[in-house]
Amino acid sequence: MDLFDKCNEFTIAREAIAAGIYPFFTVLDDNSEGTEVVIRGRKVIMIGSNNYLGLTADLRVRQAAIDATAKYGTSCTGSRFLNGTLELHVEAERRLARFVGKEAALVFSTGMQTNLGTISALVGKDDVVIVDKEDHASIYDGCRLALGEMKRYVHNDMASLEKVLQSCPDSAGKLVVVDGIFSMGGEIAPLPEMVAQCKKYGARLMVDDAHSLGVLGDHGRGTANHFHLTDQVDLIMGTFSKSFASLGGFIAGDDVVMHYVQHHARSFMFSASMTAANVAAVLAALDIMEKEPERIQKLWHNAEKMRAGFKALGFDTGASTTPVIPIMIGDDMKTVMAWNALFQAGVYTNTVLPPAVPPNKSLLRTSYMATHTDEQMDRVLDIFGKVGKEIGLI
C-alpha cells in the first residue's frame, strides 16, 4: 500500500467544490469592517466570526500593531526561551495575570500551543487528565501529548464527572480541563459544581476561556470571574484570536506553576515568540476592555436579540445562553445546503459537521459582535426566515 493512497481516495471535498457547495476555506477579499466582509467581490454580513467586541476594526488596536512593527520589526526570529522575549511579552504577561486575577501568566504564540504545552507539561505518566466530551480539539490534542491517562465525562453532566473522578486512583495527580463557553453549542460550563467536585476528589481545575474573555464576567474577565470563583480555579487559559483581535494565547495561575510550565512546555520552548505587532494589539484591546465595558453590554444585547429572533422564527438554538448561537439542523447535506443558500442571500455563517460535532448533530454556528447594527441583525433574521422556509428548516 502506498502512503498516499488515502489522499487519492479522499474525494468528498472535491465533489462539494465541483458542486459549488463547499463551505470551507472561503477566501475573504476584504475583512476591514468586521461585521461585513467582501467575498468574490460581493459584500455579505459576517455572523461567523469570533470577533466578539469588534476590535479587529478598531483604529487604536490597528495603530498599536503598526507602531510596534515600526519599533521592533516583524519577528524576533527565535523562541521565548532563547532570544525571543521582548519587554512587550513581559508586560502582557503581567497585565493578563492581573486581569484574570492570577499571580502570573505565560504568553504562547497560538491558543492551540497554549493547551498543547500546558496540559502535556503538567500531566505526567502517573497522572490523569479529565475532559468534557465536547471540549475543544486543542484540549484533546494536549491530552494525547501528555504521558498520563485521559478520561472523558458526558457533556456538562456533573454526575458523569463525579463517576470519572471516583474511578481515578487516589495516588494520581488529577487535572480537569473544561471550556468556559463551549465553542459550538454556546453553553457555559457549570463551574460551581465542578469546583465542588474537584475539591472533593483532590483534582486541579483548568478553564479554557478562549470564548469567554471579553464576553463573561466583570469587564470580560472570564468564566471564573462570572461565577465569583477566580481563587478556586487553578488555571485560566485564553486566546487572543477572539475578543483580543490578535493571534496567540496565554495560561495564568500560581507563579510556581507558571515557572514549571515555562521550563517544560515544548510548544512554548520550541516555537518562535509572538510578533511585537500581535502583542501590542493584545495590550491595546485589553486597554479597551478595561475602559469600555459598554462594549460587552452591547454584545449581550445583540446576542439576546438574535437568540429571541431565531426562536420566534422557529429555529432550534440548542442550549446556548451566550453570543455563540448554533442553528441545530442534524442532517449533513441539509446543513451544507442551508449554508450555501444563506451565503448566496448575503449572510456568512460557519458549517459544523462531524467529527466536530457528534453524528446527526450538524449545525450552523453563528456568533455576534458588539459592533453589529440593528439593521444588520434584522437583515440576517429576514434572510434566515426565507431560507429556513425554502429548505424546510422551519
Low-confidence stretches: none
Order of helices and strands: HHEEHHEHEHEHEHEHEEHHHHEHEEEH
Structural class: alpha/beta
Spatial arrangement of strands, main beta sheet = 3-9-8-7-6-4-5
**In DSSP terms, counting alpha (H) and pi (I) runs of 4 or more, how many helices?**
15
**Rg calculated over all Cα atoms:** 21 Å
Indicate the mean pLDDT: 96
Shape: globular
- If classified by CATH, what would the architecture of the largest domain be? 3-Layer(aba) Sandwich
Number of domains: 2
Detailed description of the structure:
With 394 residues, the protein is α/β, with parallel strands linked by helices. The chain folds into 2 domains: 12-46 and 293-391, Alpha-Beta Complex (Aspartate Aminotransferase, domain 1); 59-291, Type I PLP-dependent aspartate aminotransferase-like (Major domain) (Aspartate Aminotransferase, domain 2). The protein contains 15 helices and 13 strands. It has helices at residues 5-9, 12-19, 59-72, 87-100, 111-122, 137-145, 158-167, 191-201, 223-226, 255-262, 266-269, 276-291, 294-313, 332-345, 374-391; strands spanning 36-39, 42-46, 104-108, 128-132, 149-153, 174-179, 204-208, 235-239, 249-253, 324-330, 347-348, 350-352, 362-367. A 7-stranded mixed sheet has the order 3-9-8-7-6-4-5, sandwiched between helices. A 3-stranded mixed sheet has the order 1-2-11. It has a 3-stranded antiparallel sheet with strand order 10-13-12, covered by helices on one side. Strand 1 (36-39) and strand 2 (42-46) form a beta hairpin. Helix 5 (111-122) runs parallel beside helix 6 (137-145) and helix 13 packs parallel to helix 15. It starts with a helix and ends with a helix.
